[in-house]
Amino acid sequence: TITGNFANVIHGLNANHLTDQVIERSKRMILDTLGVGLLGTRTEVCHKVTQYSKIYSSDLSSTIWGHLDFRLPPLYAAFVNGVAVHSMDFDDTWHPATHPSGAVLPAVIALSEAFPQKKKISGLDLLLAFNVGIEVQGRLLRFSSEARNIPKRY
């Protein structure tokens, strides 16, 4: 099936698939997303989401970008950091319109921070996870007839 094939491709990816060019582009995408996200932490919408999210707590926690003294459960940290990235709308984009890094990087970083100290992932593992997320998003975009029609609607 299409879904089975998709799952097999994604499951089969490993660090050996990361070429030098992919690693360099990924680092540039990550740096750009972090920069836009840090700038986005100063927006009103990010401030509101951050304040609202303070009601959540957990034994596992991840960083809220721009707030060294404030951490949230990984799910909410990814959400707040994703809002920060998207609130500026300067993050990378594909055609048709989607912002791949702003959706993927906050989740990957939040999850990587939640690992126990003795199971911390390497930088290469983080790059692999980031690229798998980008690959999943790109493939889902290609499967979507709704996304394919975006340019015609605007």
From TrEMBL:
One of its GO terms (cellular component) is mitochondrion. Signal peptide: none annotated. Residues 5-148 form the MmgE/PrpD N-terminal domain. SUPFAM superfamilies: 2-methylcitrate dehydratase PrpD. Belongs to the PrpD family. The lineage of its organism: Eukaryota, Metazoa, Chordata, Craniata, Vertebrata. This is IRG1 decarboxylase. The gene is Acod1_0. One of its GO terms (molecular function) is aconitate decarboxylase activity.
